[in-house]
Design brief:
single chain
């Protein structure tokens, strides 16, 4: 598990961009948090990190927004307004479960019993003027995603531009706990 305090929307987008660099085809990420906690902001950073240069809007009313970026297909789901998990069948979820499409799913608790298991679960909560985030791996793919993030401080951290937004990083492992404040990753 990795816990981060994101001090701004820019830091939340930077985390999304970092995840984009390692996200494999077929990856499933659950996004949890209250309304306005930054779930779509994180997805915006991820999509921009993959090279999407258009607008990224919340699929609150459409329930799903598809994206094609080079050879990658991504689907950004927002299940907040889903009345019944069985509706996912009519919305085309089964066709997206081909092992190639990347699924980013907000409010996954509304789709219980119909959704694939998450590789990575990200929970965003309010923390003063910023956000706290918790990233938990639920598969080997999720563990690989966490391992590729350059947190906590690495040898490259000192070379980063200190004017960038800061993360407060806390990485939990069986061996103990480390924490550091460092500039947001590039």
């Amino acid at each position: 598990m990795l816990e981060l305090v994101l001090d701004s929307a820019a830091a939340t987008e930077a985390l999304g961009a970092d995840l984009a660099s390692a996200l494999p085809p077929g990856g499933v990420i659950y996004l949890r948090g209250d309304l306005g906690s930054g779930k779509t902001t994180l997805v915006r950073g991820l999509l921009h990190g993959l090279g999407h240069d258009g607008t990224v809007k919340s699929p609150t009313y459409t329930l799903v927004e598809p994206y094609q970026i080079t050879d990658q297909r991504l689907f950004h789901w927002d299940l907040y307004r889903l009345a019944d998990p069985e509706e996912l069948e009519f919305l085309g979820l089964r066709e997206q479960l081909d092992g190639k499409a990347i699924l980013l799913i907000e409010w996954p608790e509304h789709g219980l019993g119909e959704l694939p298991a998450a590789d990575l679960e990200i929970t965003l909560d309010y923390a003063g003027t910023g956000r706290s985030s918790r990233l938990e791996a639920h598969s080997a793919t999720g563990a690989m995603l966490l391992a590729t993030l350059d947190y906590p401080c690495s040898a490259n951290a000192a070379a980063r531009n200190s004017a960038r937004p800061l993360f407060m990083v806390s990485s939990h492992s069986l061996a103990g706990t480390e924490s550091a404040t460092m500039p947001a990753p590039t």
